Amino acid sequence: MGNKQSNSSSISTNLNLLYNTAIHCQKVNGDQQALPYYIQALSQILSIHHTTPDIDQLQYNIVCNLCDIYIRQYDITQANKFIGLALQLAHKFEEKKKLSECLDRQGEIKRLEGDYDGALLDHKKSIEIKAKTYEYEGLVISDSFFNIGNIYGDLGKYDSAICMYEKSLKIKLSAYSDNRLSITTMYNNMGISYIHQGKYDDAVCIYQKSPKINLSTINNNHFNISTTYQNIGRVYEQQGKYDNAACMYERSLEICLSILGHDHPIIATTYHNMASVYSHQGMYDDAVCMYEKSLKIDLATLGNNHPRIAMTYSNMGIVYHHQGNYDDADCMHKKALKIELSTLGNNHPTTAAAYHNIASIYNYQGRYDDAFCMFEKSLKIQFSTFGNNHPSIAITYDNMASVYEHQGKYDYAICMYEKSLKIQFSTLGNNHPSIANTYNNMGVVYEHQGKYDSAICMYKKSLKIKFSSLGNNHSSTAATYNNLGSVYLHQSKYDDAVCMYKKSLKINLLILGSNHPSIATTYNNIGLVYSNGGKYDNALCIYKKSLKINLPILGNYHPTIAYTYLNIAAVYHGQGKYNDALCMYEKSLRIQSSILGYNHPSIATTYNYMGLVYSYQGKFDDAVYMHKKSLKIGLSASGNNYPGIANTYRNMGIAFYNQCKYDDAVCMLEKSLEIQLLTFSSNHATIATTYQDIGLVYYDRGKYDDAIYMYEKSLKIKLPIHGNNHPSIATTYNNMANVYLQQGKYDEAVYMFKKALQIELPALGSNHPKIATRYSNLASAYHYQGKYDEAACMCEKSLKIKLLKHGNNHPSIATTYNNMASVYYNQCKYDDALCMLEKSLKIDLSILGNNHPNIASTYNNIGLVYNNQGKYDNAVCMYEKSLKINLSILGDYHPTIATTYNNLGLAYSYQGKFDNALCMYKKSIKIKLLTLDKNHPSMATTYDNMANIFLDQGKCDDAISMYEKSLKIKLSTLGNSHPSVANTYSYIGLAYSHQGKYDNAICMYKKSLKINLLTHKKNNCNISSTYGNMGVVYSHQGKYSDAICMYKKSLNIQLSILDSNHPTIANSYNNIAVVHSQQGRYDEAVLMYEKSLKIKLSTFRDNHPSIANTYHNMASVYERQGKYDDAASMYGKSLKIRLSTLGNNHPSIAITYNNIGLVYYYQGKYDDAACMCEKSLKIKSSALGNNHPSLATAYHNIASIYSHQGKYDDAICMYEKSLKINLSTLSNNHPIIANTYGYMGLVYSHQSKYDNAICMYQKSLKITLSALSNHHSSIVTTDGNMANILHDKGVYDDDVISSYERASAISFDTHLHNHPDLAKLYRNIAFCYDKLNRQDDAKEIRRVSVNIRST
Known about the structure:
Structural class: mainly alpha
Oligomer: single chain
Helix content: over 70%
Strand content: under 5%
Largest sheet: none
Number of helices: 64
Radius of gyration: 50 Å
Low-confidence stretches: 213-218
C-alpha cells in the first residue's frame, strides 16, 4: 500500500515537472520548444491504467495547451484530435466550465476551417453554459463575445463584429479599470474592423487609446506597446501614409527585438508588415528581402507547412507580380496553395484567396479562360463559407470584371462591377474606399467603351468617397486623378488632362517620394498628352524621366518598361523616325515575350503597332505580315469577338488600303465593324472611326457619295459623344472636305476645311502638327480654285509649324515642301518647284532610305516639272526611277504603278513617241481595271490621255470615242456638275475643232463653261481656259471679233488671279497675236508675241519648247509681212530649241522644217523649200505614221512648191495624197478639205484646165459655206480665185465683178481695212471696170487700192 502511494506520488511529481518545463519553454522559447515536453507528459499519462483526479486535471490542461499550440500552427488535424480528448475529459469531469472552454476552442478551430456557422454555434453554446454556471459570468462571457466578434470580422460583417467587441468591452470595463492589458487587445481588434470599413480616423482613435492604457500599466518597451504600433502602422499603410507606417513598424520592431530576440514569430510578422509597405512604395527588392527574413523565421519556428508560410509566399507572389515576374509570382502562389490545401482543406477562404491570386496572374498573362477557372474555384469556396453577400465575393466579382475588361467584354464587366457594388453597399455602407475603387474600375470600362461622360461621372463618385474616407493626399486619390486625366486625353482636352496628371503627381511625390513607380506612371501619362499634342521632344523628355525611375526599381525586363518603350516608339513614329520606332517596339517585344510568352494579347498589340510603322515606311507586305501575327495571337487568346481582334482587322484593312487592295480593305474593315457592333453599343466612338475608315476606302475608289454617307454616319455618332468642338469631329469634316475637293465642290471643301480648323485651333493650339495639316489641306483647295497666292500662304503657315515642331529633317517637312512645289508648279515657277522637291527628296532619303513610296512620289513630281520644262528625257528618267521603287514595294499591279505608267505616257506623248505613250497608257488601264472599280475617276483620266494621243495622231473619231468613255465614267461617279466633267467636254470640243466641226466644238465648250461657272467663282482658271478654247474655234471660223472677245475675257480672268508673269497669260497674248495675224494686223501681232515671249523668258529657261513655239509664231507673222529673213531667223531659233529638247525626230521639228520650207518657197528658193518639206515629211511619217493629218499638210506644202516650179502634175499628185489622208481622218466637210480643193483649183487654173479648176473651187466653196459661215476669209480666197479664172478667160462681166465685190466685202469685215488682200481685190475690180469702160469707177477703186498698198 505504501509502495503504491509512493509510486503514484513519484509519477505525479515527474509529470508535473514535465508540464512545468513545457510551460517555461513555451514562455521563453515558443511553442515549438514546448511541444516535446507536452507530448512526453501526455504519453506517460496515457500509459497509466488508473489515473487520479489530479492526473486527469493535468491531462486536461496538457491537451488544452496542445490544442492551443496546434491552433496557432494552423494544424487543424492535430487541433481537432486534442480538442476531442479535452471534450472527453470535460464530460468525465461533468464540469460546465471545462465544457464551455472546450466549446470556445472548438469554435476557434471551426473558424480556422472556415466553418463559420459551426464556430458561431459553438461560441453561442459556450455563452449559454457560462450564463448559467458562473457567479461572475460577465467576464467569461466577455471572451465569448470577443470570439464571436472575430468571426463576424472574418465574415466581413464589421458592424456586427464591432457590436460584439463593444459588448465584450463594456463587460470588461465594468469589471476592471480601463487600463487592463486585455482591454488593449479589444481596442486593437476593433481598430482592425474600422480599417476594413475604411474608417481610418476611427481606427487611429481606437489604437491611440491602446498605448495610453499600456503605458499607464507597463513600460515603453512592452510587447503590447509594440502591437499597438503595428496596428497604427497598418492604418497609415491603408491611408497611403507609407513613411508614417514604416516608422510605426520600425518602432514596433525595435521593441520586439529587445524583448523577443531575432527569431521570434512576432519579429517575422513585423518584417512581413514592413515588406508590405516597401511593396506599396515600389521598393520591390526591399520588400522581397523583408519577406525572405520573415519566411526564414517562420520556417524555423512553424515548419514548412504552416498557413503563415503560405501567406508569405502569397505576398511574395504579389511583389513578383508587380515586378512583372509572372512565372516567379505563379510559383509563389502555387506554393501557398499547396500548403493551404494540406492545412486548411479545399473549402477554406484562404484557399479561395490563393485561387484568386493565381487567377490574377493568369489575367495579366492573357490566359483569360484559366483566370476564370481560378476565380470560379475561389467563388465556389466563398459562397459555401460566406454566403452570397460577403465583401470577399465583391472583390472576386471586381477581379472577374477585370478579366472581362481585358477581353473587351465591357458589358459583362459592368455587370460584374454592379454585382460587386450591391454587396459592398449592403456590407460596407455607401462611403467605403472599396466602393470608390469599384466606381474607379467602372470608369475605366466606360472609358474603353468611349462613354467618356459616364467614365468621368464614375471617377468623380470615386473621388468624393476617397476625399471623405482617405483624405486629399492618398495614393488611391492620385490614381483616380490619373484616370480622369486619361479620359480628358481621349477627349483631346489636353490642358485638363495635364492638370489631372499634375494633381496626381503632386500627391504621389508627397507620399511616395520622387523615385516611386507611380511617379513614373504619371510621367508616362503626361508624356502621352505631350505626344498626342505633337510636343514630341517634351514627350521624350518625360518618358526618359519615367525610365530613369523604373529601370533601377523594376529592372530591364518589366512590363512597365516595355510599355514605356512602346510610348517612346509612338513618339519616334510621330516624328517620322521609323527605324527608331521599330527599334523601340522590338525592345518592348523582347521584354514582353520573355515575361508573357509569345501568345499574349500585349504581344499582339505590339505586332499591330509595328505593322503600322511598316505601312508608313511603305513596306506593306511586312505590315500585313505583322497584322496577321497579331491576329493569330488575338484569335487564340481572346476568341473571335474581342475588340483587339477588331482593331487588328482594322489595321489590316488600312494596310490593304495602302496597297490599294480595296476589296480586301473593305472586307477587313467590315469584319472589324461586325465585332465592334457586337461588343460596343451602336453609338460607340470606335464604330464611328471604322465608318470613317470605310469612307476613306470609298473615297479612294472614287465612290464619293458612299464616302460622304460613311462620314455622315461617323459624324452622327461622334457629335453626341464629343460635342461640336472635338478634334475627332474636325477629322471627319476634313475627310468630307477631301471628298468635296474631288467632286469639284471647292467652296464646300474650303468651308469644311475651315470648320475643322476652327475646332482644332482652340483645342490643339496654333502650333499643333494637325493645324499644319489643315493649312496644307486648305492650300490644296485654294490650289484647285486657282488661288495660288492663298495656297502658297497656307503652305508657308504649315511649314512654319512643322519646322517648329519637328525640326528640319522630318517626313512631314518633306511633304510640305512637296505641297509648296505643287503650288509653284501650277504657277509655272518650275525652278522654285524643283528647289522644293529637291529639299523634300533630301529629307526623305535621309529618313526613309532609297526605296520608299515617298521617294518614288517625289521622283514622279520632279518628272512632272521636267515634263513642263520640256526636259522630256529627264522626265522619263525620273518616272523610271519612281517606277523602279514602286514596283519593288508595291508589286506589278498597284494603282500607283498605273499612275507612273500614265505619267510616262504623257512624257512620251510630248516627245511625239505616240506608240510608246499608248503602250504606257494601256499598261496603266490594265492595272486599274484589276485594282480599281471600272468606273473609277482614275480610269477616266487615262482614257482622256489616250484620247489626246489619238488626237495628236489625227485619229479624231478614236479620240472622241475615248473621251466619251471618260465622260461616261465621270458622269456616273462625279455627277453632272464636276469640273472634271467640264474638262472632258472641253476635250471633246477640241476634237470637234480638229475635225472642223466648229459648231459642235462651241456646243461642247459651252457645256464646259456652264459647269465651271456653277462650280467656280467667275475668276477661275478653268473658266479662263474655256473662254480661250472658244476663242480658238471662233478664230478657225474666221469670227475674229468673237475670238478676240473670248481671248480678252480669258486674259482678264488670268490677270486677276495669276501673277502677271504666268505662262498662261503668255499663252493668251499668243492667242490674241494669232488673231491679229489672221486679220493682217501684223505689228499688233508681233507686239503680242513679244509680250508673250517676255513672260516665257522670265519664267522658263531660254531653251524651253514654249519659247520655241513663240519664236515659231513670230516667224509666221514675219513671213506674212514678207520679212523672210526675219522669219527664217525666228524659225532657226525655234528649231535650235526644239532640237535640243525634243530630239531630231519629233513632230514639232517636222513642223519647223516645213515652215522654213515655206519661207524658202516665198523667197522663190523652191529647191531649198522642197528639201525642207521632204525633211519634214520623213520625220512625220516615222513619228506619226502614214495617215496623219500632219502628213497631209506636208504633201500639201510640197504640192505648192511643185506648183510654183510649174510641175503641175506632180503638184496635183501631192494634193491628192494630202486629200486622201484628210478625207480618211477628217470629216468630208472639214475646212482643210476645202482648202486643198482650192489649191487644186489653182493648179488646174495654171494648167488652163478651167472647168476642173471651177469644179474644185465650187467644192471648196460648198464646204466653206457649210462649215465656216458666209463671212469667212476663206470665201474671199475662193470667190477671188473663181473670178480670176473668168478674168483669165477674158470674161469681165457683172458676175466677175460681183464675185470680186463679195470677196472684198467679206475681207473688209474680217480683216483690217488696209489689208493687202483687200487692196489686191480692189485692183482686180478696177481692171474689170476698165474693160467695161467704167473709167470713173475704175479710177476711184484703183485710188483706194493704192492707198491701202501705200499704208
